[in-house]
Amino acid sequence: MDQMGAVNSELEDLFQEKKRVRNPLVPIGAFMTAGVLTAGLISFRQGNSHMGQKLMRARVVVQGATVALMVGTAYYYGEKF
């Protein structure tokens, strides 16, 4: 039973360390993606398909940047742990 407690405390320590290395830019990118998507859908609904297409293209760019941030952060911090 003591071994199980030791393993749990080691895992908790590891998770606490991992929580500190989160990238604060990823949630910002996610909110930006959602905002551009919402604006694009509203634009389509209002009948402005030209602007809607531009916003959908912008959404793809923002979403790609967010994914690149996630992968880059995982790679960068993966080397250290």
Automatic annotation (TrEMBL):
Its main location: mitochondrion. The keyword Lipid biosynthesis does not apply. Gene3D superfamilies: 6.10.140.1320. The keyword Transmembrane helix applies. Residues 1-81 form the HIG1 domain. Pfam families: HIG_1_N. The chain crosses the membrane at residues 25-44, 56-77. Keywords: Membrane, Mitochondrion, Transmembrane, Transmembrane helix. It is found in: Mitochondrion membrane. This is HIG1 domain-containing protein. The lineage of its organism: Eukaryota, Viridiplantae, Streptophyta, Embryophyta, Tracheophyta.
